[in-house]
């Protein structure tokens, strides 16, 4: 017999006979009407869990990870405000239901059943996934990646304090809001969670406002692995900067009072707190899970005997809020109502094609107040002596710095965060003087944790900021890439475009650093970024392009709510010369702030028709170095700078090679999984019969010392590959 049916039968029998488990008597400030509403929310959560299993067996439902055993979280919702943003654990249906009772006009049972049925009418995901979430209820939907939502919850809490000091145009959270973030006891051990707790404590220790309430729902087990008894309490009770509260989730009066106290502490002190709630887990992990395969029958039955709904009926009856027989009637009526609603929900339309599924990958545009840019006086005050140098050619790092200054002057909602970006001005000096120009609120020196950096950015974006986080080196991104893949990029998809994470992530990357740093500071792979749906990857090859492209990237984030990664070639930051010492051939004049390179526009140098070299980043620089030798060999060349690496600007690339007799792709990323694979496929499809060749980096890490460039294209190898292609294609 299914454990869900056993728990159901036990509840009916024991409620009718008043055979209640022993527990605390009702006490505290929870009003009778509130207690009844909490119980109603719990009954609906339980009924939905049972119905999800019925729907799955009938082939009409597609998700059975339930909330049974965690119904006491409805009391936490009752203790919070609907304006408090909530990032929920996937077992928090009761919390969402209870919050819906605080907001007029909700049809929560219908909405959640549409989600179970994967209907395109599901108001949160549009049929793409069964997720808890609601724009009206201030609950962004979460994926089920373990603890991946904690960093952005921390960022959203930080954003509330930051908005108090400078409120962005698109801010949504009130100044007195807090952020609530729940998770399981097993998830609390994940490195992502531990990093977030540490970042929150680090922030709190410095008295920086962070109104964040963590909530650990401790049911003692993660799928089949038990949490050591007492572990959560022992490890969280005495953490500096993190106030600890604990309660019994089987006692809604205790839970409400403790959650209310914890929320009051966070709201008034503007400091983080940790709410530890004892829960149980009924039915196992999910519908297909058989808990008796890894737990003894006695253990399973002991948990079932502590059914939270039975404890609620006992407390309601004892307090006089609702008689046990009336509570049983509510339970039965709720089950019948959910079955009736489900019968209609399963008839509603579902997504049927790729276009429908993909429609929400790219978020909708949003209206922004027009800006004419900073005044001449504001620019003069910010730039100071740098203004005199703008008439002279400069290196890339200096031009990026100036572009960032103009952008931050024009858009007060831009904030930057990262390791060393503030006082030091970045490892390569790209952000020098910016903290002096804009203050610590907008140039945030973070702790050394890439997950926290990206989580801070993602969360601040939820309150109207346009974050520009920096990752020091491309190789460091791998410590935190799930924050882009599993959180930032998926949020529009899972919310049907109702939520987004607009940002411009700056990363110093690629190779050719003349022997410095080896593979950990010279990462020439962008594969991890190129396969994230909806992410825009941009890579400039010179300073003027970098400034113009950066302006477009900010526009894309600010107006189109896009997730953008701006990959800055480290080796080109200080590059001055092109062909000879002190020729200054790779320095440019700072372009006027009005100048931009539109998204998808490629760069073309030369008009030769013998050979089109398609490249980007350092490859553009090296191809330009090879150009004189190719001309001397009689090869008329054009060099096409791709600029936008993902999605590929296919139409612009096709137009750029028109009339060329051959195409050579020069790719500084690796032979396997590199840019050349996509470029070769594209040109093979649109230029059939045209001779194609590629020159790529080897499938290798990058060495430190004299062999730093041995595995990557060079001027000489480009010349040789071009000549071989031309000669071979004659």
Structural notes for this entry:
The structure is a single chain. With 730 residues, the protein is an alpha/beta fold. It is 40% helix and 13% strand. The protein has a 7-stranded mixed sheet with strand order 9-8-10-11-13-12-17. Helix 5 crosses helix 12 (324-345), helix 17 (450-461) runs parallel beside helix 18 and helix 22 packs across helix 25. The radius of gyration is 29 Å and the shape is elongated. The termini are far apart.
How would the blueprint of this fold be written?
Blueprint (H helix, E strand, L loop, with lengths): L2 H14 L15 H26 L15 H7 L5 E3 L5 H8 L7 H9 L33 H16 L13 E6 L6 H15 L6 E7 L2 E2 L2 E2 L4 H6 L6 E6 L3 H18 L3 E6 L18 H8 L3 H12 L4 H22 L8 H5 L17 H8 L12 H15 L3 E5 L15 H5 L4 E3 L4 H12 L4 E6 L10 H7 L1 H5 L8 E7 L17 H4 L5 E3 L4 H18 L2 E7 L33 E3 L5 E5 L1 H16 L4 E5 L2 E3 L3 H7 L6 E8 L4 H12 L5 E6 L17 H14 L2
Parallel strand pairs: 1-2, 2-3, 3-7, 6-7, 8-9, 8-10, 10-11, 11-13, 12-13, 15-16, 15-18, 18-19
Antiparallel strand pairs: 4-5, 12-17, 14-16
Helix pairs in contact: 2-4, 2-5, 2-11, 2-12, 3-4, 3-9, 5-12, 6-17, 14-15, 15-21, 17-18, 22-25
* CA distance, first residue to last residue: 76 Å
- Any idea what the shape is? elongated
Number of DSSP E strands: 19
Instruction: Sketch the major β-sheet.
Output: 7 strands, mixed
| Beta-strand residue fraction | 5-15%
Structural class: alpha/beta
Gyration radius, in Å: 29 Å
Mean pLDDT: 94
Helix content: 25-40%
Which strand order spans the largest sheet, edge to edge or round the barrel?
9-8-10-11-13-12-17
- Low-confidence segments, given as residue ranges, are none
Count of separate DSSP helical elements: 25
């Amino acid at each position: 017999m299914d454990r869900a049916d056993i728990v159901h039968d036990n509840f009916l029998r024991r409620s009718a006979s008043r055979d209640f488990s022993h527990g605390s008597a009702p006490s505290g400030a929870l009003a009778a009407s509130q207690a009844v509403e909490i119980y109603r929310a719990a009954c609906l959560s339980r009924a939905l869990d049972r119905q999800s299993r019925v729907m799955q067996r009938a082939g009409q439902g597609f998700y059975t990870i339930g909330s049974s055993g965690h119904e006491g979280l409805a009391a936490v919702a009752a203790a919070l405000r609907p304006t408090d943003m909530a990032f929920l654990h996937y077992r928090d249906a009761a919390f969402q239901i209870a919050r819906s009772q605080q907001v007029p006009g909700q049809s929560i049972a219908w909405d959640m059943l549409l989600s179970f049925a994967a209907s395109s009418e599901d108001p949160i995901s549009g049929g793409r996934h069964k997720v808890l979430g609601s724009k009206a209820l201030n609950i962004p939907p979460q994926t089920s990646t373990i603890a991946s939502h904690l960093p952005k919850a921390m960022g959203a809490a930080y954003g509330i304090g930051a908005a108090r000091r400078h409120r962005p145009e698109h801010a949504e959270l009130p100044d007195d809001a807090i952020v609530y973030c729940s998770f399981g006891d097993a998830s609390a051990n994940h490195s992502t969670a531990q990093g977030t707790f540490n970042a929150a404590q680090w922030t709190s220790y410095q008295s920086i406002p962070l109104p964040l309430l963590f909530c650990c729902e401790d049911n003692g087990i993660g799928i089949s692995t038990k949490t050591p008894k007492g572990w959560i309490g022992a490890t969280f009770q005495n953490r500096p900067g993190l106030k600890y509260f604990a309660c019994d989730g089987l006692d809604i009066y205790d839970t409400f009072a403790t959650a209310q106290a914890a929320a009051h502490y966070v709201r008034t002190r503007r400091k983080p707190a940790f709410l530890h709630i004892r829960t149980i887990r009924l039915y196992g992990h999910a519908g297909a899970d058989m808990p008796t395969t890894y737990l003894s029958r006695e253990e399973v039955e002991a948990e079932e005997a502590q059914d939270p709904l039975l404890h609620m009926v006992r407390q309601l009856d004892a307090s006089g809020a609702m008689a046990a027989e009336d509570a049983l009637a509510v339970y039965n009526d709720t089950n019948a109502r959910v079955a009736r609603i489900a019968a209609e929900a399963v008839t509603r339309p579902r997504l049927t094609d790729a276009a429908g599924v993909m429609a929400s990958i790219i978020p909708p545009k949003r209206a922004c107040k027009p800006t004419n840019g900073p005044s001449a006086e504001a620019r003069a005050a910010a730039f100071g002596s740098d203004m005199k140098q703008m008439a002279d050619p400069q290196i890339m790092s200096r031009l990026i710095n100036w572009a960032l200054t103009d952008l931050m002057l024009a858009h007060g909602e831009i904030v930057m965060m990262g390791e060393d970006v503030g006082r030091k001005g970045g490892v390569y000096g790209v952000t020098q003087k910016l903290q002096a120009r804009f203050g610590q609120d907008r140039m945030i020196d973070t702790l050394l944790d890439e997950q926290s950096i990206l989580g801070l950015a993602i969360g601040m974006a939820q309150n109207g900021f346009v974050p520009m986080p920096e990752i020091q080196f491309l190789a460091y991104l791998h410590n935190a890439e799930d924050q882009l893949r599993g959180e930032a990029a998926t949020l529009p998809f899972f919310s049907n475009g109702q939520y987004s994470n607009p940002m411009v992530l700056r990363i110093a990357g690629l190779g050719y650093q003349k022997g410095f740093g080896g593979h950990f500071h010279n990462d020439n792979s962008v594969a991890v970024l190129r396969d994230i749906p909806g992410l825009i990857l941009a890579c400039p090859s010179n300073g003027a392009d970098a400034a113009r492209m950066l302006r477009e990237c900010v526009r894309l984030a600010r107006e189109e709510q896009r997730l953008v990664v701006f990959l800055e070639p480290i080796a080109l930051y200080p590059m001055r010369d092109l062909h000879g010492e002190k020729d200054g051939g790779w320095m440019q004049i700072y372009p006027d702030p009005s100048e931009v390179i539109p998204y998808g526009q490629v760069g073309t140098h030369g008009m030769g028709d013998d050979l089109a070299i398609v490249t980007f980043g350092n490859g553009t620089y090296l191809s330009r170095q090879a150009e004189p030798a190719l001309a001397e060999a009689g090869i008329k060349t054009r060099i096409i700078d791709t600029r936008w690496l993902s999605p590929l600007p296919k139409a612009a690339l096709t137009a750029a090679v028109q009339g060329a007799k051959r195409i050579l792709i020069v790719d500084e990323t690796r032979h396997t999984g590199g840019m050349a694979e996509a470029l070769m496929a594209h040109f093979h499809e649109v230029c059939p019969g045209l001779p194609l060749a590629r020159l790529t980096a080897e499938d290798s890490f990058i060495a430190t010392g004299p062999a730093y460039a041995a595995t990557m294209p060079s001027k000489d190898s480009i010349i040789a590959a071009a000549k071989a292609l031309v000669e071979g294609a004659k």
